[in-house]
Design goal:
three-stranded antiparallel β-sheet, elongated, five-stranded antiparallel β-sheet, alpha+beta, single chain
C-alpha cells in the first residue's frame, strides 16, 4: 500500500520561463533516472504555473494528495532553478499526520523540523522547557 501525503503549496521565484522550467525538470529527471526509476518517473509528473511573477508547483493531476515519492529530488531540482537570494519550502503532511519538508535556497536543500511550542502571551516557549518542572501522568 502506498503512503499518501498532502503537498503544501510551494511557490518560488525563478530565473527561468515556464517552458525552460519544464525542459529543465525533464532533463533533471533523466539524469537522476539511474538512481531511482520510480523517483525519476514521478518527478516528470509535476508541472508549474506562473502567477504574479512567482512559480507555483503543480502536483500530478493537480491534486496535492498523492504518493510523492520524489520529494527530496523535487527539492533538489527547485534549488537548481530558484533565483539567488530567494528561498522557499517544500512541505508534506502524511496520512498519519507526520510532517516533513525542506528549506530550499539556490544550490542548497536542508531538512525542516517542527517544534512544539506553548504560547506564553506573545512568546513561543518550546514544550520541553515549558513542562520541565511539571509531572506527567
Amino acid at each position: 500500500m502506498a503512503y499518501l501525503a498532502v503537498l503544501e503549496p510551494c511557490t518560488f521565484k525563478s530565473r527561468l520561463t515556464l517552458d525552460e522550467l519544464t525542459k529543465a525538470l525533464r532533463e533533471f529527471a533523466e539524469e537522476r533516472a539511474t538512481a531511482s526509476v520510480r523517483e525519476s518517473h514521478s518527478l516528470k509528473n509535476y508541472s508549474f504555473r506562473e502567477e504574479d511573477g512567482m512559480v507555483h508547483l503543480v502536483p500530478p493531476g493537480g491534486s496535492p494528495v498523492g504518493t510523492h515519492y520524489c520529494d527530496r529530488l523535487l527539492a533538489e531540482f527547485i534549488s537548481c532553478v530558484i533565483e539567488k537570494g530567494y528561498w522557499t519550502t517544500l512541505e508534506l503532511i502524511g496520512e498519519d499526520g507526520q510532517r516533513w519538508g525542506y528549506f530550499i535556497t539556490a544550490g542548497k536543500v536542508e531538512p525542516l523540523g517542527w517544534l512544539k511550542v506553548v504560547w506564553k502571551g506573545q512568546k513561543p516557549v518550546p514544550l520541553e522547557r515549558a513542562t520541565a518542572r511539571l509531572k506527567r501522568k
